[in-house]
Design brief:
Blueprint lengths: L3 H17 L2 E6 L5 H13 L3 E5 L1 H8 L14 E6 L4 H12 L5 E7 L2 E4 H8 L4 H30 L1
Antiparallel strand pairs: 1-3, 1-4, 2-3, 4-5
Helix pairs in contact: 1-3, 4-5
């Protein structure tokens, strides 16, 4: 049994993590083996995402008043993944979930100051990273110019 001072310290840590992050993902990790959890933590850390396992009661206390709406139902063993980037936490948990079927599940989270469902966090997880979006945008802009250059080259070759 945890002492009250230890519980308060854990709540303060959770509170700080939630306040300093752009988004928080609630993860049910029931059935995750130690080796898999180590791999998950490593993958998340490489992407700038923090991961913390918590007791549901302590997490519920830390979440009070942190966002609008109702806290999603937190069932099973709970952890939070959080980062300063709005989508990276959800995206990295989702990517790990795809490669390790049936182990992790996204239960919900906090996004833009509101509690959101697991389905909504999964949708957010599917948004590509900023770098990928930039690359797609540049390709979109560059594509007509490339086609125009190819047409001009074809015209020049046909006149010779």
């Amino acid at each position: 049994m945890l002492q009250k001072s230890k519980k308060e310290e854990m709540i303060k840590e959770l509170d700080k993590a939630i306040k300093e992050s752009a988004s928080v993902v609630f993860v049910n990790f029931h059935g995750l083996k130690v080796g898999e959890e180590t791999a998950l933590r490593r993958d998340l850390r490489d992407q700038g995402v923090s991961y913390k396992v918590s007791r549901k009661t302590l997490l519920a206390r830390a979440l009070k008043g942190k966002a609008e709406g109702e806290i999603p139902e937190l069932k099973g063993e709970i952890a939070i993944a959080y980062s300063k980037d709005q989508t990276s936490g959800a995206r990295e948990v989702y990517n790990f979930q795809k490669t390790h079927k049936g182990i992790l599940s996204i239960l919900g989270g906090i996004f833009e100051g509101k509690f959101v469902s697991g389905e909504r966090m999964t949708e957010i997880a599917m948004i590509p990273s900023r770098e990928v979006l930039y690359a797609q945008f540049v390709n979109l802009i560059n594509s007509p110019i490339q086609r125009f250059a190819v047409v001009l080259d074809a015209i020049a070759k046909s006149k010779n």
